Amino acid sequence: MQEWTDGRLDELSHRVDRGFEQMNGEFNAIRGEINGVRAEIGGVRAEIGGVRSEIDGVRGEIRGVQRALVFGSIAMTSAIITGFAAIASQV
Question: Between the CA atoms of 85, 86, 89 and 91, what dihedral angle is there, to the nearest 10 degrees?
Fold first, then answer.
């Protein structure tokens, strides 16, 4: 076995310190990437909220068209019944 001299212990200490510095740099890079992903997710959520409001608007328009169709059908049916009644009363 070799002896552990002060010089060797100092070198080991410096190598360990450099390793921790590298790891801190890598952790900071990972934190940056995570923050970027969080920002992208926030953007996607905002887009989803916009799409939802657009879908709600389309649903409202569809309800309006449905009401118009129902009232139109009632009016046409009433007109047809009234026409048949007029024809039947002349006979």
Answer: -110
